[in-house]
Amino acid sequence: MPQTESNNIVNGITGIVLGGGNSSRLGLTHSKLLVHLGGKLVLARVADTLKKYCSELILVVRSDQEDDVPDLGIALNMHVIVDTEPYSGPLAAIHAGLSASITPLSFVVAGDHPFISTTLVNSMAAAAIVDGIENAYAVVPRSNGVLNPLHAIYPREQWAPYIAHALFEGESSPSRIIEAASANEYPPITFFTDEDIERSDPRQISLLDIDTHENLKTAKKILDARRFTPRNHSL
Fold first, then answer.
1. Residues 6+ apart with CB under 8 A from 145
2. Residue 1: inside a domain, yes or no?
3. Is 147:140 a contact under the CB 8 Å cutoff?
4. Is the peptide bond before 114 cis (omega within 30 degrees of 0)?
5. pLDDT tens digits along 20-75
6. In this model, does residue 118 exceed pLDDT 60?
7. Do the strands 40-41 and 36-37 form a parallel or antiparallel pair, or are they unpaired?
8. Which among 58, 118, 89, 101 has a CA at the least distance from the CA of 177?
9. How many domains, in total, are found in the chain?
10. Which of 47-51, 68-72, 186-190, 209-213 has the lowest average pLDDT?
């Protein structure tokens, strides 16, 4: 799809970070958001990137979450809320975040994406309002044929009620409701292709999560490659 030139839009949107997922595939006894990566907790890395640009950060957690993620969110000056009850899972978290948002557009991201590109988010936000904010699109990356609904732009007005209805109907998959929206041409949605993504993020590392041990190793390699020792500086 064509790119839209714009000023920085990210600071006019809400950042919604999903923090309620478990870490079963990593075999951790604590949330992967509490993993140290490059000397910083993953959730802190996400928040520190977004808070420079977003008007507000919302952290969505499970109602029964007993780890340190909610407290860390508060310490990071995030507005902490729980999944829309009585539902659970990422779709309920997206709905809760959109319902609490105070801006027309929100950037929804899973809390285990340590390399968010604000340039990419800004490009997605610009594409969302190419026909005006009143006709805003959801913008979802489709990388290598795979949807990334947990790294996407959602307009609150159209998508909060759409997701509420899907939850009521028993749906739990963000990907399925996105495919349904695309097929029905409502709510309005557009996809960022690999070509679109690579204009802002050539290596597509912004879409990397740390869901597996292999993902975590990759993230550490990326950070290792960025390390350097300036002259007269002791690490």
1. none
2. no
3. yes
4. no
5. 877 655 656 678 999 999 889 999 999 999 998 899 999 999 999 989 999 999 99
6. yes
7. antiparallel
8. 89
9. 1
10. 209-213
What would the two tokens of residue 148 be? 């990334």
State the burial class of residue 55 (Cβ atoms within 10 Å of its Cβ: 0-12, 13-18, 19+). middle
Note whether 116 and 84 are within 8 A (CB): no
Tokens standing for residue 43: 């959730």
Closest CA to 136 of 164, 109, 168, 98: 98
Residue 26 burial by Cβ neighbours in a 10 Å radius (0-12, 13-18, 19+): middle
Range of the domain at 29: 10-224
Instruction: Assign residue 112 the CATH number of its domain.
Output: 3.90.550.10
Judge whether 15 lies within some domain: yes
Predicted TM-score (pTM) of this structure: 0.90
